[in-house]
Amino acid sequence: MNIDALNESDLLARFQSSDPDSAVAELFETYADPIYRLAMQLLGDPTGAEDVVQETFLSAMTHRAGFQGRSKLSSWLYRIAYNAALNRLRRNREEPMPEEDPDEDTPAPLPRSLVEWTKTPEDINANKEAGDYLEKAIMALPMKYRVVFFLRDIEDQSTEQTAGVLGLTETAVKVRLHRARLALRESLSEYFTERNAKV
Amino acid sequence: MKCEEIVQYLSDYIDGDLPVEILEQAEQHMAGCKNCTAAVKTLQNTIQLYKHTGKARIAPEHRNSLLAAIQEAAKSHSHE
Prior knowledge:
The complex is a heterodimer of chains A (about 200) and B (about 80).
Chain A (H helix, E strand, L loop, with lengths): L4 H11 L5 H23 L2 H18 L9 H19 L29 H5 L2 H12 L3 H12 L4 H8 L3 H29 L1
Helix pairs in contact in A: 1-2, 2-3, 2-4, 3-4, 4-8, 6-9, 7-9, 8-9
Chain B lengths: L2 H13 L4 H12 L2 H19 L7 H19 L2
Helix pairs in contact in B: 1-3
């Protein structure tokens, strides 16, 4: 979800003009899927995630004159989408909202599974069960870890950008990312070690 | 440096964010520690798998109607 600085500046100028049609189409082409994925991480529901995409773009249209370019367009849109998804969750919440779930001040737990394994993305794409397991493992993370892992490691946002989107300090982003990564590593290690042992 | 300390630095280590003096100690430890080496390699593998698999996209049959609804709203905004 990245556009180079020159194109972003041109795109923003057209988006903020009185004729934003082409810019809206370009923004949709570039950012609709990443926004959809963010909403899916939070809501786990394709219909709700599509609604968040629409709500994000409509909100961006309404407030586009006020965007001053202090953050990247992608961060701004992610921030709108994150808030839109959280508002939906607040109406029907089953787990703690990220901002209400304080970070643990104890060190991250030690790894338990220490057998080395190697899998490639091609291995996963060729094995539906393994793909489903990856999905299940990330959805089992507390939401506050899941969303940080998603932005940093899946969507390649920087620590600073992630902190801006989620309204966190960079230190909190690093702490949550560390715990998310360790939890996923543990989960995948148990799964792949067990699978390898059966072969 | 002990394994317990290495664990706290794993993320910064793979992101290349460790200060030089800690990096040197960590690498010295890992050169002789099979468990920590396995933890680093499987952590990197975990991240790579998520980065490169299953990037969901909006259903193709919904894509055009979603864009059309947004553009319709965009038009009404631009005429306000």
